[in-house]
Amino acid sequence: MCTNKTYQPKTICDDHLDIHGATGSVNIAFNYRGVPLKLTCDFLLQGYDVRPKRKEFIHPDPPFARIFLFQTAGGEYKAGGKVYRLVPGRIHLLPPGQPFEVAYHANSELLFFHLHVYDHAMMSIFNGMSGLPALEDKALVGRLLTTWRAQDSLRVKLAVLDAVAMFASARLEEMRSHFELTRKFKPLFDALRDTPPGQLRVKSLADEMGMTRAALSKSFGRAMGMPLKDYLTRLFLKKACERLLYSGMPVAEVATALGHRDAHYFHRAFKKLTGMTPDAYRKTGLRSL
Questions:
Q1: How far is CA 200 from CA 14, 104, 191, in A?
Q2: Please, which of 212, 217, 219, 276 could form a disulfide with 281 given CB 3.0 to 4.6 Å?
């Protein structure tokens, strides 16, 4: 979770952008059909954006979910070859991992939240969603706008969590099934939460599980639907991208926080995976937040 200072509005755009109370993390434990589930919501960035002129952005690889609420004017969202209207007064979910283009209409006013919403295995519960899910709930829209204007950080988060819960309701059966398949890996997931990505070793994880490396990799791949190596890479990228975009830490400090003693190694590893240096990723990402 990013707990460092957020970027100032002028860093992100030239128009009016009000940001406050962005960071924080909320864990929710609940039961669904007799199965104990866990949902975590990381608040990465939130703000109120006023665009006097039409503005367009391209997001080729969005790593986190966004909740959009236009108060005026609205916009357009293009994903998967389809164009969707961002309608004022509706709460829209922009799923992670879905490349998209967005255009804000002139004189638009937008309340937005960047979130990472994930399960016990640190997998986004909105991965695989397509299109533009939306809620029409006047009471919730009113709560979001009123608590934002009052800078009531607690009530803002509670209202956002209500929206997240509504969107997540369509994913509960999938979450239950995923938990059943992966519950035996709880010691591994606990170790992953407590260990910086740069210090993770498959052998140590195998020891934690009381398995050989080969047995762990095979069993994990069957349960998760992806090789353990790919999962660890995804976890590294998620944490690296989060800190690069949503904290004010110098790149060298990001490398240290991720468990890399050698910042040059972090540079090489990040560029190999993304095709961009950490600095370039940060600059490009900040222009399209």
A1: 40, 41, 9
A2: 276
Which residues belong to CATH 1.10.10.60 in the chain? 195-287
Residue 14 pLDDT: 43
Residues in the chain, pLDDT under 70:
1-22, 286-289
pLDDT of the residue at 12: 35
Torsion from C-alpha of 36, 181, 64, 88, nearest 10 degrees:
-60
| Contact in structure between 121 and 189 (CB atoms under 8 Å) | yes
pTM of the model: 0.85
Q: Residue 20: what pLDDT?
A: 55
88/102 Cα distance (integer angstroms): 15
CB atoms within 10 A of CB 200: 15
**Both tokens of residue 109?**
């006013």
* Superfamily name with CATH number, domain 9-171: Jelly Rolls (2.60.120.10)
Question: How far is the C-alpha of 45 from the C-alpha of 24, rounded, in Å?
Answer: 9
- 143/158 Cα distance (integer angstroms): 9
Tell me the CATH architecture of domain 195-287: Orthogonal Bundle (1.10)
Residue ranges, CATH 2.60.120.10, the chain: 9-171
Q: What pLDDT does residue 66 have?
A: 94
